[in-house]
Specification:
Length: 245
């Protein structure tokens, strides 16, 4: 694997992500808007917790979903549909190098997302209760969640035409947003929906962040183990389902 080719392609992929208005809307604007709006307008059932304490982990989960599942999945789907991936296959760039470059671009974008959200949350009054070990576990959990969401997005994009994958990925994103505890706590959902949400990766990503950064919710080993399983399964499914052209 050529490090120079990977870095050059990663820079190109990052520029493509930054130039796409839809990508910026899903990855940066929506999570930030959710955090600021629902903190300023306390309409969500937060109990005795400050709205910003409840919303910050969910906004982080939303950002990771936006970059790893929506942005990566949709852009890859259109590249596949327009035979961009097929053309890249005849260049010196190897398939493993392309995957590594896309991964680096997404990780760089996620770093910017999380930094922006953390700074905004701190300005809104968020005060995390986390040790150095807790922060490390949160970072590992976000990386595992990113793999899981990317697997879901690539599995869809690798089997469906670009426009269909666009619609399906956005539908999955909306379902995760509404039903998986990203914004609305699971205990406020009807029991059947709450049980469904508890099997999805967004709920466990948010639970892990609440545990490691806020000191509430289930102990972090449980969410971390479930996210590890999701990352493994989603990655395997994406590998088996994806077609390069």
């Amino acid at each position: 694997m050529s490090r120079r080719r990977v870095i050059a392609q990663a820079r190109f992929e990052l520029r493509l992500l930054a130039r796409n208005g839809e990508n910026l809307l899903v990855t940066l604007v929506i999570p930030l808007a959710v955090l600021v709006f629902f903190t300023a307008v306390p309409v969500l059932p937060t109990g005795d917790r400050a709205p910003v304490d409840l919303l910050t982990p969910g906004a982080m989960t939303l950002a990771i979903m936006g970059s790893a599942m929506v942005s990566l999945g949709i852009s890859t789907g259109f590249e596949r549909d327009q035979l961009v991936l097929k053309r890249l296959a005849v260049t010196p760039l190897r398939r493993s190098e392309l995957i590594a470059a896309k991964s680096l671009a997404v990780i760089a974008l996620q770093g910017a997302q999380i930094t922006l959200l953390v700074l905004t949350a701190l300005a809104l009054g968020w005060r995390p209760h986390a040790s150095a070990a807790g922060v490390l576990v949160a970072v590992v959990g976000l990386l595992l969640a990113s793999v899981a969401f990317a697997g879901i997005g690539l599995a869809i994009a690798g089997r469906l035409p670009a426009l269909r994958s666009l619609a399906v990925i956005n539908l999955v994103f909306l379902a995760f947003l509404l039903l998986a505890g990203v914004i609305v706590p699971l205990e406020t959902l009807p029991t059947p929906l709450a049980l469904l949400a508890q099997g999805l990766p967004p709920a466990w990503t948010t639970a892990l962040l609440h545990s490691t950064l806020g000191g509430v919710g289930p102990a972090w080993p449980v969410p971390l183990a479930i996210l590890t399983a999701w990352a493994a399964v989603a990655g395997l499914v994406a590998t088996m389902a994806f077609r390069w052209e």
